[in-house]
Amino acid sequence: MSEETLSNLLKEDRRFEPPAELAAHANLTEEAYARAAEDREGFWAEQAERLTWSKKWDQVLDWSDAPFAKWYVGGELNAAYNCVDRHVEAGNGDKVAIHWVGEPVDDKRSITYAELQAEVSQAANALTDLGVGTGDRVAIYMPMIPEAIVTMLACARIGAPHTVVFGGFSSDALASRVVDCQAKVVVTADGGYRRGAPSALKPAVDEARAKAAERDGHTVEKVLVVKRTGQEVDWDDSVDVWWHDSVARASTEHQWQAFDSEHPLYVMYTSGTTGKPKGILHTTGGYLTGCAYTHWAVFDLKPETDVYWCTADIGWVTGHSYIVYGPLANGATQVLYEGTPDSPEKGRWWQVIEEYGVTIFYTAPTAIRSFMKQGREIPDARDLSSLRVLGSVGEPINPEAYVWYRQVIGGDRTPVVDTWWQTETGAIMISPLPGVTAGKPGSAMIPIPGVSADVVTEEGESVPNGSGGYLVLTEPWPSMLRGIWGDDQRYRDTYWSRYAEADGGKGWYFAGDGAKKDTDGDLWVLGRVDDVMNVSGHRLSTTEIESALVSHPKVAEAAVVGAKDEDTGQAVCAFVILRDEAGDGGEDIVEELRNHVRKEIGAIAKPRQVMIVPELPKTRSGKIMRRLLRDVAEHREVGDVTTLADSTVMDLISGRLTSGK
Ligand code: WTA
């Protein structure tokens, strides 16, 4: 974001006070900030009381081995029991947990907490029969169907950490994740529906299993397959098992067991600054506390009356924390939607809100921007008056999109909570509170009670109001990542080395985002300061895409940058040097390379633009100056080139581009 846009942003003076009615009955009030600041651990102990513990903790936080935290030390609980069984025991068995809406119209099913309990128990029994024991990893590669949630909870129930891989990822991406966490079993479906057509998933699992075996000598022992679309699948009797033959026939009784508060709950892979995705590890007690508390506080959830809907995919952390663990721990009723927003009609989402009377709606700015483009007639055609709180996540929300969201979708009555957090933080960290905060379009405002954040200089000095710097979290929090799967050093290096000396040597958590404090001290998150891009709210690493490009036989070198894009926030732009023997690469080289990235990583990583260039701008030490490439990709005048080893390179690149070659 340029300095100019920044200062425009900071001049934003529209304010939206909380509706009086909401403020009067808000779950969390102004006092919570002071209470949490006074006794942070006491505050978090209170939040953990939202859960049902089999054994109470002895100590709230053990931070003696920083940055490796332990929360609710000595406590024991079962996450699935907390998300399902206890609601049935409390007499809410007939309450709907999930209104599932399939993509094909009329393909829908409402599942009560009692039904969910039976299905999760069956799946837990079936996974056990397949040889999954406590501590074994299970990979999940599924469409947005209830069985995906059932599988996650079944894993939690038996203490087998799950790793959900987004269904849009390629077989290669799946294979590398399966290998990294040594998954014993993969749970998948024959396919899912995408814009009215079945789209296969099982073949990617077959390929990934073969790759894991050939390349890394890792054996996936069993593949459990849900029949969703009925499409043809290859079948290996020694490995493949149908869900309807195993889970559906298993006993609906399953005795859950309590696990240590720090027992691993799941690993979620996310992009970092190197080519290899990081397996972010979350554990049980602290994570579930963070999810339950934030989902209740930030959305002002009233479980008896609200109908909540988060549009994320369960393949991302938002789906984990705000579809599965937060809402279910809170006993909420929610909508789960399988499809895309605009299929079979542009207004499908608004139709779903009308049909189910959704009251709390949580989505991403990229979706909001695409609806703005389609025009307000589409949502206006539906009755959206049930909505009372709107949420945004994944990237900075531009003020115009915020105001449109509030006015058009929220009928100018609903607060918009712009929630900043990350895969690593596990739960929302910075956000307005709907019954407390006068919202400012574009600002995530201040940390929620219990969380401590700051914006600091390179040297770790807190910046004054009106200035920008790096976003840090200055105190540990319950849902924080516990590490990177199998790589403690990378965990320290990535998050804790930059401000290692802070807080008496315990360090601060470096988020990788730039931020600014406005004159009131409210925070504006500006985006990544590292080599991570944010495309439609999805995290992608520049290096990962560069490695994919370089794996193509015609490519000698590649540099990737995220360039500003009106629809997707950022877009992938690649600069590629071809190998000599590839000549000019042929007429279709650009398409060939774009599709290659799609095959290697997945459709979300497919570059918007591939530019074939003769050279790349490098410093004398050989580091690619992406800043200059970003100037080119964003059609700006190229900035300072004096640190380049060869300052004529940028002329060559710009010249090549303007001559259209
Ligand atoms: C960005 C998604 C501005 C940020 C939950 C962060 C945001 C990265 C916001 C994490 C927001 C997320 N305002 N930026 N409200 N929410 N981000 O791990 O750059 O997929 O570091 O987690 O998304 O992405 P992740």
UniProtKB/TrEMBL annotation:
Q: Which Gene3D superfamilies match?
A: 3.30.300.30, N-terminal domain of ligase-like
Q: Which reaction does it catalyse?
A: acetate + ATP + CoA = acetyl-CoA + AMP + diphosphate
Instruction: Write down the top EC class of this protein.
Output: ligase
Concerning CDD domains, the annotation shows: ACS
The protein's PTM annotation reads: Acetylated. Deacetylation by the SIR2-homolog deacetylase activates the enzyme.
Binding-site residues for Mg(2+), renumbered to this chain: 550, 552, 555
DNA-binding as UniProt keyword: no
Q: What family, per the record?
A: Belongs to the ATP-dependent AMP-binding enzyme family.
User: What's the protein called, per UniProt?
Assistant: Acetyl-coenzyme A synthetase
Q: What is the lineage of its organism?
A: Bacteria, Bacillati, Actinomycetota, Actinomycetes, Propionibacteriales
Its gene is acs
